Amino acid sequence: MTEPAPVFASGVDHERLTSQLRFILETDKLKRILRRNMLVDGSRRENDAEHSWHLALAARVFAEYAPAGTDIDRVVEMLVLHDIVEIDAGDTFIYDPGQADSQSERERAAADRIFALLPEDQARSTRALWEEFEARGTAEARFAKAIDRLAPMLANWHTEGGTWVRHGVTRSQVAEKVKIIAEGSEALGSYAVALIEDAERRGYLAVG
Amino acid sequence: MTEPAPVFASGVDHERLTSQLRFILETDKLKRILRRNMLVDGSRRENDAEHSWHLALAARVFAEYAPAGTDIDRVVEMLVLHDIVEIDAGDTFIYDPGQADSQSERERAAADRIFALLPEDQARSTRALWEEFEARGTAEARFAKAIDRLAPMLANWHTEGGTWVRHGVTRSQVAEKVKIIAEGSEALGSYAVALIEDAERRGYLAVG
What we know:
The structure is a homodimer. By secondary structure, chain A is mostly helical. The first copy, chain A, has helices at residues 14-27, 48-61, 72-81, 86-89, 97-114, 120-135, 139-158, 162-166, 171-184, 186-201, and strands at residues 34-38, 45-47.
């Protein structure tokens, strides 16, 4: 763990600020957690931090496709922190059932450690927002998840199948993810269906 | 420019969605724009996309240090898009006066091209938010700029002086940036002063 600089600023609660700085320094590690999918130009794998940034941007751009009344600021807040647990738990490839089994437990342990670096009130609210995202019980969480699932589909389509081809992902496996998109946004779900049909025509998806 | 997949989704305005997808695909390039500063572990240079993510997170964590009434959702929105112009204009090293001269013009041209990829209403509001950030005329813009200036100071301190040492940056040059932090947040300005004093004691800053 990187310790914040041992300096005292006047008029600031030192302990509280130090906790916040420790969290900010710790989360720098998200920039080194690599995902399976590539950048859109195919040059290298994407990392979790830049992925989270792109989702925060996309949530705003696609806001009109969220159900009426969805709080987009809250969606953005969720997306900014949704992958922080992967600093400890690593990126879980969504098409690998073996990994997915232990994912929840590993991510919970990570949340226990990392969010707790923050001052208690912030640790609690941040953890709650992450739990909300994971549970998909609110319109905000479902829309955030839809954006999270759509982004790698765009990247895969634009890299001639990308991880679908490399890992022999089947159409029925992708259809599961499309369902999650449709649950968060009818319009984006409809787009994802059309994109997957096109990907299949192009031979990017395995039979099954 | 990467063109979105030529697919039609039912019940969606195709032209509008295609513009939005074009913007999302184009902004993927921000992941390849490198900044001068390193990651906190010193392993490599930071890119603009992951930098923007970390600022969006930091703005939320440090929200209590913004002046009362500051709209943090708006600050986050600004930070998510503040560097997009660098896709065309490149990262400008803030301690290089030669680059800084032409920066404004280059960034304006980039904004003209990139934000205009969006549907007209979104192009207009996104451009306006970026202009607001640049002008620093609101509490939101000043706080966003403070976060943007503080982050590389943290990275520099934690990499034994980082870009300060590598480029012979002087204490008086850094003091200018500290002033911008103090204008956005009294508490973070106070912390930045203490951090710079400590950096000077450690010999991370050149005399001048």
